[in-house]
Amino acid sequence: MSTVVEKFDSVVLDVLKEIGNIGAGNAATALAKMISKKVDMKVPLVNVLDFSEVPEILGGPEMEVVGIFFKLEGEIEGSIMFVLDTNSAQKLIELLMPGISTDGFNEFAFSALQEIGNILAGSYISSLSSLSNLDIKISVPSLALDMAGAILSVPAIHFGLIGDKILMIENEFVEEFEKDSVNGFFILIPEVDSYDILLGSLGVQI
User: Fold this and answer.
1) Per the count of CB atoms within 10 A, which of 32, 59, 60, 158 is most buried?
2) What is the sign of the dihedral through the CA atoms of 40, 43, 44 and 45?
3) What CATH code would you report for 23-183+193-201?
4) Residues 106-133: b if buried by 16+ CB within 10 A, e if exposed
5) pLDDT per position in the chain (206 positions), as tens?
């Protein structure tokens, strides 16, 4: 296995954090356009973590969450997930699509979340593609409502074969007239070889 992920230094982390900052800014802009209101975004927390640490950060492996999963395709391969706890997922739907009932997360709520996730993930990947000059696309989203441990088992089955480091970006969005914020996590999981391609395209030598 490549040792790229074992050699992250401060320069590499700064580059990855900048990608997270720009992507989050574009995501906030996309949200604002959806609802025609200003959406403030706190500075995102960006970290490279062991995959095994993720469930605890989400509230523990038994915490019920909504996970929206995409495959990365093109010159970078891997996957990206957008994960929210159920309370944040309900707030996000109510904020962006008022009038849609979230009781029991019905079909309309799931459809709304998939569309929101698609727009947000697309904002991140568009930023990454623009910065790196790489052709990167995302697949049609897959959504699941389950415990964090179960949600993460899907990429873990595959990811366990190629490495143990992921890029995790914690976002907090606040609509200008709302007191409550919405917290969500983007989890970027490139294939190990894709780290070489990505960082090389950004001018970072490992």
Assistant:
1) 32
2) negative
3) 3.40.1550.10
4) eeebbebbbebbbebbbbbbbbbbebbe
5) 344 455 555 666 777 777 777 877 887 788 778 777 777 777 778 787 777 788 888 888 899 999 998 888 889 888 888 898 888 888 878 776 676 665 667 788 888 888 888 888 888 888 888 888 899 988 888 888 899 888 887 766 665 544 567 778 887 877 665 666 788 888 888 776 777 787 788 776 65
Sorted by sequence, the CB contacts under 8 Å of residue 32 that are 6+ apart come out as 38, 39
Cβ contacts of 135 within 8 Å, gap of 6 or more:
74, 75, 129
Beta strands in the chain (DSSP E): 39-41, 45-50, 64-74, 78-85, 136-138, 142-147, 165-175, 182-190
pTM metric for this prediction: 0.81
CB 187 within 8 A of CB 196: no
In this structure, what are the phi and psi dihedrals at residue 2, rounded to the nearest 5 degrees?
-60, 150
Quote the tokens at residue 101.
Answer: 């009932």
Tokens 């993720």 sit at which residue? 54
d(CA 170, CA 154): 20
